[in-house]
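stage 2 :: seqdesign
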């Protein structure tokens, strides 16, 4: 009987817990717009999306469906360029939440959020084409691993901020809040997969 009561309490707590995935936005002094789900105090973030259990469940369902849809393409690119498939999933989830039509305020497009110059460098003519986007982004990641001697944190940071920014700070993660948050999120997801 005691085990049943403990199980009942656990189930109530499990289903009554609140999931916080609100989205916050701020504009930096340089005019760049930053989005996060973990705002830092004192930086002027304002909540723009409040997540409720109902819309969180809907978003999770969408994410799972699209993840499954793109997994064969991701696996193919991972094998072709010898990049860990789990890393690609972590980066795509962070970059676009598996939305092939995602467009950032900076002009990055697609699942792996390729900028025009990166897309051109890797032969991507249609950044919204999932296969091209994933192939180009994965090829870029392979090159970043070579450039930064397989240092995972620097690869992830340079994917977000650009390899020039990482080199500018003597091969260290640049002190940009967006990039530091991005590295933390990608590595946290990567470890969970």
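stage 2 :: out
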């Amino acid at each position: 009987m005691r085990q049943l009561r403990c199980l009942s309490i656990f189930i109530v707590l499990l289903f009554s817990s609140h999931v916080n995935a609100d989205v916050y936005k701020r504009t930096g002094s340089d005019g760049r717009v930053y989005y996060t789900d973990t705002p830092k105090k004192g930086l002027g973030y304002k909540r723009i999306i409040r997540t409720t259990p109902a819309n969180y469940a809907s978003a999770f369902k969408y994410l799972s469906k699209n993840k499954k849809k793109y997994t064969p393409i991701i696996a193919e690119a991972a094998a072709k360029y010898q990049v860990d498939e789990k890393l690609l999933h972590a980066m795509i989830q962070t970059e676009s939440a598996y939305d092939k039509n995602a467009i950032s305020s900076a002009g990055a497009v697609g699942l792996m959020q390729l900028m025009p110059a990166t897309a051109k460098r890797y032969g991507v003519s249609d950044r919204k084409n999932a296969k091209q986007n994933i192939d180009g982004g994965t090829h870029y990641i392979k090159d970043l691993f070579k450039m930064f001697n397989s240092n995972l944190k620097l690869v992830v940071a340079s994917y977000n901020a650009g390899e020039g920014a990482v080199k500018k700070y003597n091969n260290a993660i640049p002190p940009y809040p967006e990039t530091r948050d991005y590295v933390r999120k990608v590595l946290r997801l990567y470890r969970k997969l």
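stage 3 :: structure notes
- Residues 19-51 form one domain.
- The mean pLDDT is 84.
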